[in-house]
Amino acid sequence: MSTQRPLADDLGFLLSRASGVVARSVSEALAPLDLRVRSYSVLTFACEETAGMTQRRLAAIMALDPSQIVALVDELQSRGLVHRTPDPADRRNKIISATDVGHRVAQDAQQRIDRAYNGHFDHVPPERLDELRLLLREIAFSDTSSGEPQAQARDA
Amino acid sequence: MSTQRPLADDLGFLLSRASGVVARSVSEALAPLDLRVRSYSVLTFACEETAGMTQRRLAAIMALDPSQIVALVDELQSRGLVHRTPDPADRRNKIISATDVGHRVAQDAQQRIDRAYNGHFDHVPPERLDELRLLLREIAFSDTSSGEPQAQARDA
DNA sequence: AACTACCATTGAGATTGTCAATAATTGAAG
DNA sequence: CTTCAATTATTGACAATCTCAATGGTAGTT
């Protein structure tokens, strides 16, 4: 009566394995820029959003503890890649925005990552990648506990 | 000229986020059994495979450093969930096999995990989940550097 | 017997995850 | 205006994880 489905078919296991493989290769791709995956994520989010990207929102979107964001922003700020500005409307919020250098570094980083992705995703046709993206988004944000990507019909 | 594709559409980011969300909920589901995700994986692999599952193979399949397997097996063994038997053919290899208790605990764990998965995957129809599994397998094992799941046509 | 290669193991050091406590700020209630 | 609860960023402690180098035991080869 034991289901005993092989773990190699388990979605959680596969997700973890795939995520790990990709993250490792991204990590190598970013090493020359002295960036790690997390730093890159924060930097990139700081590049987007002309609106105010607070640390709290960063934590929510990245599904990280707010205290981890502090350290990440600290390092990026000390390297002159992002600004940390208190929100005039609510001075509890610190708004994270990329500097000019930050934008350039982020762009460089993204190109390196794209190159790294080739080794992983170029086997599979774009339509399937779109499908994958869709599914992952559903799973990653199904709880709605965090970042906004849920109902994606807006103005864009 | 900046591509500046939003990070929320990035496959690496989505993989990490989705993996994290699922892992967290699995972790909670296993807490009552005093198991974490990694321990469960080792235990489950020890349940499969009447053949010899060595620690080296565990490390390869789970994409972990061999030294981490040691600690995981140590704990499972101390709790009487797995055996660590030197391979008679090559005594360098330690074959990891689940005890009777181990099998029962693994089964219990799997049921709890399945229940936890309902919250994540029941939205999406089975065919799409199969497609997802397929894609993840390709990505997770594309390098062939590790565990065998590549050419899946065997005897089963 | 000497040598090379492999496996499990140990240990150190960095990175990350988790959680509680605190100061500053805000908004609302009295 | 004062008090109170809630929220944000921050700090610090501790556990868990990753990464890497070194070691002892074993196997196969020459």
From TrEMBL, chains A, B:
Pfam families: MarR_2
Gene3D superfamilies reported for this sequence: Winged helix-like DNA-binding domain superfamily/Winged helix DNA-binding domain
InterPro entries (alphabetical): HTH_MarR-typ, MarR/SlyA-like, WH-like_DNA-bd_sf, WH_DNA-bd_sf
Keyword Iron in record: no
Biological-process GO terms, alphabetical: response to stress
SMART domains linked: HTH_MARR
Claim: Repeat is one of the keywords in the record: no
Gene Ontology MF terms: DNA binding; DNA-binding transcription factor activity
Alphabetically ordered keywords of this record: DNA-binding
HTH marR-type domain segment(s): 8-141
Protein name: DNA-binding MarR family transcriptional regulator
